[in-house]
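Weekly structure sync, notes
Attendees: PL (lead), two postdocs, one rotation student
Agenda item 3: pending single-chain targets
PL asked that the sequence for the first pending target be pasted directly into the notes so everyone works from the same version. It is reproduced below exactly as submitted, 127 residues in total.
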Amino acid sequence: QLQLVESGGGLVQPGGSLRLSCAVSGFTLDYYAIGWFRQAPGKEREGVSCIGRSADSTNYADSVKGRFTISRDNAKNTVYLQMNSLKPEDTAVYYCAARFSGRFQQCLLIDYEYKPWGQGTQVTVSS
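Predicted structure, written out during the meeting:
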């Protein structure tokens, strides 16, 4: 059974950092791109970042460029999202999702192309 589990969320003050993890099981991470998406209360789900099969292939939403960094460790079947300089507007439930991908295919932040999804982890940025 393909499964993704997010962890690492929590409450942090503005300017702080968090590292989210997306642990996958039931499939080999090597063949998948992973995307991070978030949804704040009352707002549409939005793409945050994704990483292709090649760790050099990454994509970021404009709102997080320069602050967030995505990485993958295929040996651990885990993808990470390092979030620095957090802002209150980063508050949301963060989800990771998988997309079977070609080796050199650029990842895109198109949510309906990703399946399956994790259950989400809450990130709250507040003083």
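Discussion points:
- The chain has a mean pLDDT of 96.
- The radius of gyration is 13 Å.
Action: rotation student to compare against the earlier draft before next sync.
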